[in-house]
Write a structure and sequence with these properties.
Radius of gyration: 24 Å
Oligomer: single chain
CATH superfamily of the largest domain: Vaccinia Virus protein VP39
Distance between the termini: 72 Å
Number of strands: 7
Number of domains: 2
Strand content: 5-15%
Shape: globular
Structural class: alpha/beta
């Protein structure tokens, strides 16, 4: 190929690339405009008209850009996915519309982590349906968003929820070893803020560094669901050592941040602990890489 042909080929390729970028940009702008129109019109359209408008909206190429396979060839953080049929079509989980308000209260970024909310709610309901005995607990409460989910189902079924947190961010003593490079974080909270989200009824707030806050009451209890979201090695390994022996057979252990790669102390603690038990992890594709296990009989 001579130089003039090479230049022509390169120019054509650049032109195609530029046109492609423009089409994507235009589709995104059109998608955003139509989404806003559908949202506003939804207040006054009939049900049939609104369904039609939403079909038109989802048929746009912009949504194909945010679904497989294109989204998996990109660095986009958002994607389009179906909601579970059991919720949308069969209406088996009407409480989630209310719980979603608590899920994002004071923590709006949770709005992008719907798979985690679904997974938490569905699995708690499974534990309850099977009659697994025990209370609920959470270690690492922050502002009470996931605690509100635990509290909702606990109140419905006569169980208590124990919420352990410093409510002041990371304890300085825990920023060591694997986590020596981490900085103090999650201090923008308080017991009152978490209480505003999760409520008071059948909820016990335990303030302070874990496991120093364990008392005779929490030590003697049996737990059906435990949610560990403490980010660092020291509280995570302490939480596993304390709660796993007290988890009922069939009980659910939920571990946030296991597969997300940022909180490496979490993965180290969990990997160390699970080498000594028979149970194995199941990982979820939510934002921060939640893992779950159920205790064998």
């Amino acid at each position: 190929m001579d130089s003039s042909s090479a230049e022509g080929h390169g120019s054509a390729a650049a032109s195609v690339k530029a046109n492609s970028r423009e089409r994507v940009s235009r589709a995104l702008r059109e998608g955003e405009r139509l989404s806003e129109l559908v949202r506003v019109a939804g207040r006054s359209l009939s049900a049939n008209a609104l369904r039609f408008a939403r079909r038109v909206e989802t048929s746009l190429g912009v949504w194909r850009l945010l679904a497989p396979p294109l989204v998996l060839h990109s660095r986009r953080r958002m994607y389009v996915a179906y909601r579970p049929d059991c919720d949308v079509v069969h209406h088996l989980h009407p409480e989630l519309a209310v719980l979603a308000e608590s899920w994002v209260k004071h923590t709006p970024k949770n709005s992008g982590d719907l798979p985690r909310l679904y997974a938490l709610a569905f699995n708690i309901k499974q534990i309850i349906a099977e009659g697994v005995p025990g209370d609920f607990a959470e270690l690492g409460v922050f502002r009470g968003n996931s605690a509100a989910v635990l509290a909702h189902y606990a109140r419905q079924h006569g169980r208590s929820v124990f919420l352990f947190d410093t409510f002041e961010g990371f304890a300085a003593k825990d920023l060591s070893r694997t986590d020596a490079n981490k900085v103090r974080d999650f201090a923008a909270t308080s017991v009152d803020m978490a209480r505003e989200v999760a409520g008071d009824s059948q909820v016990v707030y335990v303030k302070g560094r874990f496991p120093e806050t364990v008392n005779a009451d929490t030590e003697r209890r049996q737990y059906a669901v435990v949610h560990l979201d403490c980010d660092l090695y020291e509280p995570m390994i302490a939480g596993l050592r304390f709660f796993f022996p007290r988890l009922s057979p069939g009980g659910l252990l939920v571990i946030h941040d296991y597969g997300g790669a940022h909180w490496d102390g979490v993965k180290r603690a969990v990997d160390e602990f699970t080498t000594g038990i028979n149970e194995r992890l199941v990982q979820l594709p939510d934002k921060a890489g939640t893992a779950m296990l159920r205790k064998s009989a």
